[in-house]
Amino acid sequence: MSTLSLAPVFTPAPARPRSTVRLTRRGRLVVFVTSLLLVLAVAFALAGGAVGTDSAGEPIPTEIVQVTPGDTLWGIASDIAADGDVRSVMTEIERLNALETTGLQAGQKLRVPVVSD
Fold first, then answer.
1. Cα(39)–Cα(93) distance, rounded to whole angstroms?
2. Domain that residue 95 falls in
3. Predicted TM-score (pTM) of this structure
4. Based on the structure, what is the number of domains in the chain?
5. Phi-psi bin for 30: left (phi > 0), alpha (psi -120 to 50), beta?
6. Per-residue pLDDT tens digits of the chain, which is 117 residues long
7. Would 43 be classed as within a structural domain?
């Protein structure tokens, strides 16, 4: 007796047509640089709206105070603070004078906000 075996028939998939566009190394670089420039142009266009106002702001009226021996920033701010909020006046003095610490030296000149009563 003989045995008959059936093998599945192999049908190759139809060949896809090859694209006629092939990018070389230089072509990929050109596409990358162009895309990068496009992204940067969009970023600059969107960031153009983040500008200041057209009118100048009102400068804060200030006066110069010379630090004497024993003066502290808290003491100077408490003399100036009209509403009793010493911490906000201290912060304002630090900002006006670009102070990194609250330590003061005798003879140092500080710009402080003018007391408005």
1. 42
2. 71-113
3. 0.51
4. 1
5. alpha
6. 667 777 777 777 777 777 777 889 999 999 999 999 999 999 888 877 666 777 877 888 889 999 999 999 999 998 888 777 889 889 999 999 988 888 888 899 999 988 765
7. no
